[in-house]
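Order emerges. As here.
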Amino acid sequence: MSAVNRIALVEEFLERQSRLDTLRFITCGSVDDGKSTLIGRLLFESHALFDDQVEALKNDSKRMGTQGGEIDFALLVDGLAAEREQGITIDVAYRFFSTDRRKFIVADTPGHEQYTRNMVTGASTAQVAVILIDARQGVLPQTRRHSFIASLLGIRHVVVAVNKMDLVQSSKEVFDRIVADYASFAKRLAFESITPIPLSALRGDNIITRSAHTPWYHGPTLMGYLETVPVHRADAMRPFRMAVQWVNRPSDQFRGFSGLIVSGSVARGDAVRVLPSGVTAHVQDIFVGTESRAHAVPEQSVTITLDREIDASRGDVFAAADSPCEVADQFEATLVWMDQSTGHTGRSYILKLGSATVSASITDIKCRFNIQTLDEVPARQLNLNEIGTVKLSLDRLLPFDPHREIPDMGAFILVDRFTNATVAAGMIHFALRRSKNVHRQSLTIDRAARELQNGHRARCIWLTGLSGSGKSTIANELERRLHARGMKTFVLDGDNIRHGLNKDLGFTDADRVENIRRVAEVARLMVDAGIVVITAFISPFRAEREMARLLFGQDEFIEVFVDTPIAVAESRDPKGLYKKARRGEIPNFTGINSPYEAPVHPEITIRSHETSVDESVGRIVLYLDSPH
């Protein structure tokens, strides 16, 4: 064959491929159900491997010896050394292959419970889930968890792939029992179709061709199903949405707004509404790269120019003017908790939705779900891999659509402020009614007027440290000295607050978080009143102290770490609490059986075992008097 003919054949093949649609699917389920082997078999049987890859696979299989000299198809997907050594999947592995009928992107997701977060990542863009079940094990808790997450994330088509049928003599009774068990569980999930298929990924049964080992099965092969399942995206039929990723200003003559279209289409002349501001304008031009286009569709990254100057920035959303998305700062949502640290009511996180980044706190945990039954269970916290319904409060308005309507506009993550770890993935249900009905009232007399009348600045001086460190003693003396100067002051002391405002709270981690949240809000009101407020709380968790700091303006929050070794604090033991804690009479006592997270960068550090009360107070007063 001549070079010209070879080029023509390649071009013809590429043209055919360009006309094919793409199916994104995941394989998931419990540990050692054969997910990686199944994908490896699909790649091998669909001729998606080059000769050198097949030869390398044969050599690796012999070297690893996991299949007694036969090909170990899992090695095609398990690329990490730790995965090959342990025979498990840890990270999400993406693979691309194609047939004459469709192109595929498959995500092999881990089965271990500790890697649930990776499964969520893989499922977030999938259209079909292949749930593998070991025929010997049946439906397991992780099978249920992955199915529930797939349903929550909007996957509507599921294959129940009962694998390793060769190890149960291809028993129809075993297959039927597993299918019935899964169907009973899945009744409460939002799947549109559930297709059970008996498989042996290792032998290739019912993967590409129908197996003679299961003559009683008359359904599709796995590849036949994947090639024909209807998964036409509805994005193009939904209203136009584009989150602004950046403002494109290559020169003074050009100002455009760049982002990814997640739903709907847009054309020159269309009216768009910019949210949350609500300003409207018309599309002047659309650029894909440097090429001007008359219109654009979902999954295209574009730059849009408008017919007039408007104020928009990263995180804002361009929406169809006649069908805009909602805007709110309080939501009900489902969370999949993915971190070792516990999720508590009142704790503050960073929320990321699309290109928007805002501060958010969990205001209520309504329930968590029992993975076995999907029943709602009352809860006050969320632990690793738990799924629950919560209420969230944000520090500013956020454009959104409910996740069930436009997934990309309702899916978000929560990020820990200190570790930058993703602690949860969330799906917005709806805005809370009070988000629309409660508005800040503008008052004539503001903080500046109150400070002017008082003759001094309002501040929050936040003393933190172990019980017995001397916080209350220092706070009391500090107020006395400032009061003598004629300053308006007030001390919020931990014990005093628990006699009234917070007498309903105990000392669990969740209660401690709520205790500090309430105190911080009260302190902010007092600062707004023009008062110097002094707080004396153990406030053991760094996240809550940071949450408190964020409520105040620059230089208004002064963190004072009363750094006293626990041995010294315990030797003082003014209330006898350490002795009771050592005897086991006080659970959750900070420093003994509950942690204290020391400040990293406090404005002032006082070592009360080395410094007198007068000297300690003098340092704080000097800081207040110094310009900052």
About this structure: The mean pLDDT is 85. The longest strand covers residues 356-369.
